[in-house]
Amino acid sequence: MTAYAYYPGCTLHGTAIEYGLSTQAVCRALGVELRELDDWNCCGASSAHAVNPWLAHGLVARNMRLAGATGLDALAIPCAACFARFKATQQALQDPETAAGIEEVAGGPVPRDLEVAPLLAVLTEPGLLGKLEAAVVRPLAGLEIAPYYGCLLTRPAEVAGFDDPEDPQSLDRLLRTLGADVVTWPGKTACCGSSLALSRTEVVLDLSHRLIAWAEEAGANAIATACPMCHSNLDMRQAQMRRAGLGSHAMPVYYFTELVGVALGIGHAELGLSRHVVDVRSLVERVPAGARS
Amino acid sequence: MARVGVFVCHCGSNIAGTVDCAAVASAARDMPGVVYASDYKYMCSEPGQKLIQDKVAAEDLDRVVVASCSPRMHEPTFRRAVAAAGVNPYRMEMANLREHCSWVHGDKPVATAKAVELVGMLVAKARRDEALRPGRAELTKRLLVIGGGIAGIQAALDVANAGYEVTLVERTPTIGGKMAMLDKTFPTLDCSACILTPLMVDVSRHPKIRLMTSAEVEEVHGFVGNFEVVLRQKARYVDHSTCNGCGTCWGKCPVKDVPSEFDQGVGTRTAIYLPFPQAIPNKPVIDAARCRTMAYREAQARQAGEQGLSPEEAAKLRPVGADGRKMPPCGICEKLCATGAIRFDDEDALVKERFGAIVVANGYDLFMLDGSHDEHLAPVDRKPYYGEYGYGRYPDVITALQLERLMNASGPTLGEVVRPSDGRHPRTVAFIACVGSRDVKVGRPYCSKICCMYTAKQAIMLKEHDPRVETFVFYMDLRAGGRSYDEFTRRAQEAFGAQYVRGRVSRVYRRGGRYVVQGYDALLGRPVEIEADLVVLANGTTSARGAVELAQKLGISYDGYGFVNEAHVKLRPVETNTAGIYLAGCAAGPKDIPDTVAQASAAAAKVAGLFARPFIETEPTISEVLEQRCVACHVCEEVCPYGAVTFVEVKGGRVAAQVNPAVCRGCGLCAAGCRGRAIVLHGFNDQQILAEVESLFARSAPLRPPPREPEPLVAGRETTHA
Lengths: 293, 722
Known about the structure:
The complex is a heterodimer of chains A (293) and B (722).
Chain A: E1 2-6, H1 17-30, E2 32-36, H2 48-51, H3 53-69, E3 74-77, H4 80-92, H5 96-106, E4 115-118, H6 119-123, H7 126-135, E5 144-148, H8 157-160, H9 170-177, E6 181-182, H10 201-217, E7 222-225, H11 228-236, H12 238-243, E8 253-255, H13 256-263, H14 268-271, H15 281-285
Parallel strand pairs in A: 1-2, 1-3, 3-4, 5-6, 5-7, 7-8
Helix pairs in contact in A: 1-13, 3-4, 3-5
Chain B: E1 4-9, H1 21-28, E2 34-40, H2 46-59, E3 63-68, H3 71-84, E4 92-96, H4 108-126, E5 135-137, E6 142-146, H5 150-161, E7 165-169, E8 184-185, E9 190-191, H6 192-205, E10 209-212, E11 215-223, E12 226-233, H7 248-252, E13 258-259, E14 268-269, E15 272-273, E16 285-286, H8 292-307, H9 311-316, H10 332-336, E17 349-355, E18 357-360, E19 364-366, E20 397-399, H11 400-407, E21 428-435, H12 451-465, E22 470-475, H13 485-494, E23 499-502, E24 505-511, E25 514-521, E26 526-532, E27 534-539, E28 541-543, H14 547-554, E29 581-583, H15 593-611, E30 616-618, E31 623-625, H16 635-639, E32 645-649, E33 655-659, H17 669-673, E34 679-681, H18 686-698, H19 717-721
Parallel strand pairs in B: 1-2, 1-3, 3-4, 6-7, 6-18, 7-10, 18-29, 20-27, 21-22, 21-27, 22-23
Antiparallel strand pairs in B: 5-30, 8-9, 11-12, 12-17, 13-14, 15-16, 19-28, 24-25, 25-26, 31-34, 32-33
């Protein structure tokens, strides 16, 4: 059994609860133990680093100290925004002077050799991918999925250190392992508008609409994401897009963990599939049950 | 008693900036054996050399220590200078105060102290220097040219025209290289074939040139004037001495779907083929991997072996193919060949030849987006680059060399520029520059030099092919240094309407039957999207496939990208650091055709200069066996990398080692390995080396800075106070 320290971040207990549920269910099924940090705090994403760098790094550093206390050497993070913040602090720790400042704010030594892994990397690690392939009971045949990485998972490349920043492949590989067809589309790493959601909503509508339109154009019948922020912009704003005259969409937007869960035969309720704005259940219900052809 | 003179060079400020040269000279005056020491700004200059020569005469010096730069740079210069003044050139030593001291240190007192120690070591050695005289070795006046592109062709012709024999080795079935694939050349737009193919014919007809195509260098031994080279003539399965190139065989070959290497995969060829109609030699070869007869014979032998058949039975066996059906025996070319030139049982042949000099002209290859150029990685570890451009996924995203083949009058479309996907004429063409150039992320931080120019050329030519075509060029910077080059790129924009967009492309994706090129216009500061019918990638250049392996065989140095290093970047650009091995063209980094040809002719001039000598002067700094001490333990023979040691019978019927002076390179391994101290390495004998070591450790406190002189008072103040 592989064990990871686990930092869910705030969204997985809130708007992205289905990401949290499906993550837990899938990891359980695959024998990946997630040990949630005790008394974790907000990572500071989207606002702290714009206000005060010591606050931003301090928030992350405290969580890293908690992760260090678990005795595990790797920390799994489902949310792309949290992941980006952790990686930024990890990079800041490389400068001894900055590191001293961060440790002062965090109230003690921060582990340096902690591996910070996005959940996508955990599930696409070669050994696990093989295990997953063998465990698929309900291949996602006939599903045409647009893999959407968003901007934070792979960039900036020298900070994130995960996958190819221009043409990432890990989610593509994962979806193919599940038996889905992966469509080639231009939106893979394009921005959804992210944290402008509150301040410049029209920009977010425009960018998110563009993503959905691209996916439709490429023949996708669903989008798979690895980021709660992207998910909320894509899933929750389709009605707004229609009202704004941008176009009428009905694009299901999955967390990749939900698709893994479906392929593993985990029940919809356990995965939280009812918690989407655009229905995602009817599409996967069309997937024929049974063994891989 | 030895009389040593020490000459400390400032090298402008290169040494003097970090080392107190006057203090070094002053310290040298106290060293044993030193009768004269001074310093000067540029010791290698005319006044510097004259200073040495004058002092040799005035002070009756018989040893000279020049404390300046690396001997790799100026040892020949100073040896000549002292020899002219009557001192044996091997009694001149160089203390390297630049590369080994001033350039690698910052603290002046410490660097000065180290400089004094370096000089002390060389003075100690110089006092024990023997007078040595160079030996003589035979000079084989025959040149080996490796690579039959324009560089190799030019070098071969120049040397052959000077009257020397040349063997030109090319690994593909034809000479002509990349230049033969081009339609036109920048900046004059003259037809590549019209200027190249006559030279190719000259090579094939030149009485002094022996052309070996489908051949590679297998092994290289020896040294300047005396290289022993093993060449592999790969099996061609066609006897070129009887074949008359009539063309019946490739016209009738039933295997017609092999992607043509020469056409960069945008055209096909047969299994027995001529790479292109003007190929030299103008005779075909058989691609064994694709030939039906070869497959039939291979399967027949294998299946007969599996079934344990006798040779007579095996000959009658009709083998079964992978599809479960009986294989066709084919053999059509053999039946149709009027001269009986087909040789299905042809095999690789090794030939050993002696050459006096070698020109390395192995050219370049394109940066491949599938990562196949990453030869230092195992195939499984190679990863594709620039997946976002869709090369390999979209048929109409092509390389510039593929476009060149489509534009070429003798290319697969006879010069019709059409899309590989549907054969339609593109109306909008987008070029992406710097694909695999100036990009640290793909391990290619260097500029490939030719892409800006060939992209401008292709933009012009597309417009000439079809005036309705619109072209866009996404570029980072326009690098058009060269005579008439900038004018040329300007003409592409002003007279031929090429629209240059400064910025990188982030993604290419398909929309309907067209391709959306997303990029960023850095001058306008906003994203741009262009819908194009055809996308052309300006692939950068990499070292040629197998370049590192070849350099290792030749024993020449190369850089981290597989390009050969010049002996001196500025002053010896066509020589390698191995005497007798020269380079030309892209072997040493990206170059355009004019630079390549200039280098080839320069290398040829160097070769002709070498061959004009009656013999080779060999270095006297080689090993010698003191036969009365040798116990014939054979250690020297084992450690010698050059095979210079043999064993001969000496007086009294004993056997003793002998070093062949023509083969010994003076590396010293035998001398170090000899247990009985029976081997002397002249110029670096035990007494000399130990004297250097003793000099270094004789000082009580190594690296102790010399006492600082009191800070000089500001000039003038002293006088006012006085």
